[in-house]
Design goal:
The complex is a heterodimer of chains A (101) and B (190). With 101 residues, chain A is an all-alpha fold. Chain A is 77% helix and 0% strand. Chain A contains three helices and no strands. By secondary structure, chain B is mainly α. Chain B has a domain of 78 residues: NADH-ubiquinone/plastoquinone oxidoreductase chain 6, subunit NuoJ (Four Helix Bundle (Hemerythrin (Met), subunit A), Up-down Bundle). The chains are: A mainly alpha (101), B mainly alpha (190). At the A-B interface, helix 1, helix 2 and helix 3 of A face helix 1, helix 2, helix 3, helix 4 and helix 5 of B.
Chain lengths: 101, 190
């Protein structure tokens, strides 16, 4: 008998919370990307848990696509970080304030 | 919910994966050195992979290790080393006064709200004894075959679209990170 789905759902919710807290408080763009990965993993865990509970393979297929999109997102995001770093010698998002109104 | 004596191994697996996930996640947001954060992220990814295996998502667990821990985190580390930002970040200073407090309160409310919503709706599916109970998971063996069938039939269009997405992402990354020679920096792509 596996542990109830609720335990995994709570774990995923807490992981999502930790990731979003890091995203809101850290200033380095690299760390913010890692926090984004944490949040994506929390959502993936929720999908897999529901796939198990409902006996539906669609949840796992969705996780598969989320992983692909996450890989693409990290590739482009890190490219942007490298490009920004070239011009400003910093990865702090606080310094990207040119478009401030 | 009815009190059922759950098998000790599954509880142990859950406890271990939860410990790995949470310690790693807190490490990511607390550690000052980006390299340490990236290594901490690997710990979280392994914990999530463990939870995947425990829920009979074997293929996804393998992909999690290979793609996330093996490729994405290595890419992170590569960029960290490449840019030479593997130094301290002043985590102590707080440029926006009260940002941490506001973020903490907001995140707490959001997380508590999610959990409360799920609890009120009986975790969407109800206790396993009442709901149909995982058909795919009940066999005990992994469901790689089912997942492959679903991806290549039901989700075929999405699967092909991801191929296009990956190509576009690669081209975009090359364009963004390339250093132009003849153009002046002011009118460069970056």
């Amino acid at each position: 008998m596996n542990v109830p789905a609720a335990w995994y759902l709570i774990l995923a919710a807490v992981l999502f919370g930790v990731g979003s807290f890091g995203l809101l408080t850290r200033r380095s763009a690299l760390i913010m990307f890692m926090c984004l990965e944490l949040m994506l993993n929390a959502v993936n865990l929720t999908f897999v848990t529901f796939a198990r509970t409902l006996g539906d393979i669609g949840g796992q297929a969705t996780v598969f696509f989320v992983m692909v999109v996450a890989a693409a997102e990290v590739t482009v995001g890190l490219g942007i970080v490298v490009a920004v770093f070239r011009r400003r010698s910093s990865t702090s998002v606080d310094e990207l304030s040119e478009m401030k109104g | 919910m009815i009190a059922i004596a759950y098998a000790l191994p599954s509880i142990l697996v859950f406890a271990t994966s939860a410990l790995l996930v949470l310690v790693g996640a807190v490490g990511v947001i607390v550690l000052k050195n980006p390299v340490h954060s990236a290594l901490s992220l690997i710990m979280t990814l392994f914990g999530v992979a463990m939870a995947f295996v425990a829920q009979s998502a074997d293929f996804l667990a393998a992909v999690q290790i290979i793609v996330y821990a093996g490729a994405i985190v290595v890419l992170f580390l590569f960029v960290i080393m490449f840019l030479g930002v593997d130094r301290r970040e002043a985590v102590r200073v707080e440029p926006l006064v009260g940002q941490r407090a506001f973020a903490g309160v907001g995140v707490f409310i959001t997380t508590a709200g999610i959990i409360a919503l799920m609890a009120r709706s009986h975790w969407v599916t109800g206790p396993p004894a009442v709901s149909s109970g995982g058909v795919a998971a009940s066999t005990g063996s992994g469901n790689v075959r089912e997942l492959g069938t679903a991806v290549f039939t039901t989700y075929l269009f999405a699967f092909e679209a991801t191929a296009g997405l990956l190509i576009i992402a690669v081209v975009g990354a090359v364009l963004l990170a390339r250093r132009e020679r003849s153009v002046t920096p002011e009118e460069g792509l970056a």
